[in-house]
């Protein structure tokens, strides 16, 4: 009489990870979050509680009072500084994604003369200390009449060597068939008559569904 062997249930991937990895990850997360927690503790306690040894690690009840004083202080344009930070940060982030992706795609997928030398030059600029470019950058911004403006902060950071190199590595590891399918969709929509857009889109969407599976596997 033959006996049936029970099927082995496959455990989820997160259960197969050793517990020490989760412990190490928890320690790293705690160390990363602690500076933000410490800022909140300092802002909500008095100077006496912070100056004592050991200092208090429990948040106090003065956070709203301190925040109100900061927002209403004379000569401290906190709201304007916060708004400028959002404008500069969002503008630089969008520009980095667009321009770095375009340059990275050119270095990864286009075959042109001097490509390897140019990418080595871009990587070499990352090895230079940033302090060497402070004075030349200020002179350039001054000659462009962008001193004391947000443009002086945004324009020099529109594209960076790190962003170009990072996006190049992303494009190198991606599938060429996906880019070819996207290029076909764009070319069909650009050169086909308006009355063919409906059939073009329906046909190309079915084509891209098959091609997009390769991209999903890569991600």
Characterization of this structure:
There is one protein chain. The chain is mostly helical. The protein has helices at 13-16, 19-44, 47-51, 63-71, 78-109, 115-126, 134-143, 151-154, 161-172, 176-191, 197-218.
Could you give the distance between the termini? 48 Å
Ranges where pLDDT stays below 50 over 5 or more residues in a row are 192-219
Total domain units = 3
Shape: flat
Oligomer: single chain
Strand content: under 5%
* Mean pLDDT rating: 76
Tally of contiguous helical segments: 11
Nutshell version of this structure?
By secondary structure, the chain is an all-alpha fold. It is built from 11 helices and no strands.
Task: Summarize the topology.
Blueprint (H helix, E strand, L loop, with lengths): L12 H4 L2 H26 L2 H5 L11 H9 L6 H32 L5 H12 L7 H10 L7 H4 L6 H12 L3 H16 L5 H22 L1
